[in-house]
Amino acid sequence: MRAEIAEQPGVLGAAVERRGALAPVAGRVRGFAPRFALFAARGSSDHAALYAKYLTEVLLGLPSGLVSPSTTTLYGARPDLSGVLHVTVSQSGGSPDLVEATRSARERGALTVAVTNTPGSPLAEVAELSVDIGAGPELAVAATKTYSATLLALYLLVDAVRGGTGADVADLGELAASALAGSEGPVAEAVTRLRFVDRVVTTGRGYSSATAAEAALKLAETSYLSARSYSGADLLHGPVAAVGADTAVLAFTSAGRGGAAMEPVLAAVREAGADVVAVGSAAAEVPAAVRVGVPRTAEEVAPILEVLPAQRLALELSLARGGNPDRPRGLNKVTQTR
Amino acid sequence: MRAEIAEQPGVLGAAVERRGALAPVAGRVRGFAPRFALFAARGSSDHAALYAKYLTEVLLGLPSGLVSPSTTTLYGARPDLSGVLHVTVSQSGGSPDLVEATRSARERGALTVAVTNTPGSPLAEVAELSVDIGAGPELAVAATKTYSATLLALYLLVDAVRGGTGADVADLGELAASALAGSEGPVAEAVTRLRFVDRVVTTGRGYSSATAAEAALKLAETSYLSARSYSGADLLHGPVAAVGADTAVLAFTSAGRGGAAMEPVLAAVREAGADVVAVGSAAAEVPAAVRVGVPRTAEEVAPILEVLPAQRLALELSLARGGNPDRPRGLNKVTQTR
């Protein structure tokens, strides 16, 4: 896991270099002129899909939704999907339920795109179009480089569809290296503070909701923490009742509208007595016990950087608690869900 | 909270009696012939919306998604929503972000429906069509009767749109009374077992995914438990690593395809050493430490019954742990999110 976290600046930089390969896929999507986008994914890829949902609605002006594969695989639902862009996101490209949901979507008229790290996978075979994440083999059970590379692939695809030039991610490799280098000290400080924690809540708003969900999953997978994730808005809607002096809050706050909207959330959890670790390009500007800054980018690119310290925190916290983040109990790389 | 839990058989029975009032709304939806459905909600209502997403895809054959209100309220996204059915679900009908998201959806061509317990609320005013949940005033901060009544209103609306007769819920009031009466003993047994628990995972598949999410929220709100919810499929995809002998699993398993698909999930959490409390009409048939049965219904109706023991569990567990479920810390009834 440590080695794969460190590979990310190179993986991201190389993917930006290869962005021209997305042009044919983006051209097909534009020609199809979708009215609606649907994303199918599980686990970490589902958080990448949540990020892509925001990109699609805000940058492309297309309504979109996350697929519940089981409506197709369990209940046999066959909605008419003509005019629908159906994007399936899967590192392995091997989960039977996602392959089946994609095949079924294509039969029902959707333009199907597979976003996967495994060219030639069953998923890439069944989808009409395919995007290679290009992260290289991932051996660690907890996804790290495939997560950030998936976010970038989805961003580059959306950017290409809108006719962008990729300018906002031109330096992403260097920025990722800087984010990792700069996070070492603050993450060590956070690990010291959180070593004995039982209750963790992760939260963010807008694009960073996806980062909060992914951070909670990494902490659950590697440190066996019962970490819960909420969008900042949903947290205020009820679950803040479960936040108290015995709770650590990992709050993602990057420069932009999502970060700004975190202000009342941060005020509420501080009032509840929680220990707050703030992560993101706006972390330096908020009251928190530990602040983990990352370089500032366009707001829609921020999730690709702000997840890096969260991955490192999951790794180091697992080690500090006597765990082995590369051998989490009960976990396989490809889940055979139906 | 106790009084409002007990009111549910009456509330549900009365709502079934009044189902004819939905005919004009259903007629408008049929006439509109939507191509997609979008649901906007927060908190408990968001879990009701997840249930409605399954109903819409399976029973109406319409693709659907859950709205992230912040793409509109924070980022100003204005996707074209012509041909889209936009359903906003809110007990209070007062959350500014939901009112704004609904107003914006209507301006962009969606047919907007408000499902609310507050006729005349800002939400009901701004939506083109309105459905009254009719649960009566809810004083407890943790939503109970408005949740089950919202599920039923959404079911009755979908059933009316498909031209159904409501036959599958004709006896729902009596069944709810039976579910509550039958749960008293098993819930007391579960409270005894779970009194000192720190780690709770709730899980279900298909329609019951919504129940799992709602149960986790109730436990978080009333007992300050760090309860996490996963669809059974997502749980196997990674977070099962955080399940061990120190974990209680609240598993929803009702007769039907969703309950049947819980088999590998139950096997995995038992193998991990978790203490399993099974709830639902198929609970008697699965290996579990405690089984809380409810009457059998059509699978798509099961979430309305299976949530009742979960609400009672949240209430009784809070009391057993010295809490006051009617005065949860840090919680307000209407959240002013933007």
TrEMBL record, chains A, B:
Domain SIS stretches: 25-167, 190-328
GO function terms (MF aspect): carbohydrate derivative binding
Keyword Plastid: no
InterPro entries assigned to the protein according to its UniProt record, in alphabetical order: GlmS/AgaS_SIS, GlmS/FrlB_SIS, SIS_dom, SIS_dom_sf
BP terms from Gene Ontology: carbohydrate derivative metabolic process
Alphabetical list of SUPFAM superfamilies matching this protein: SIS domain (SSF53697)
Pfam families in the record: SIS
UniProt keyword list: Repeat
PROSITE patterns attached to this UniProt entry: SIS
Keyword Mitochondrion: no
The protein's name in its UniProt record: Glucosamine-6-phosphate deaminase
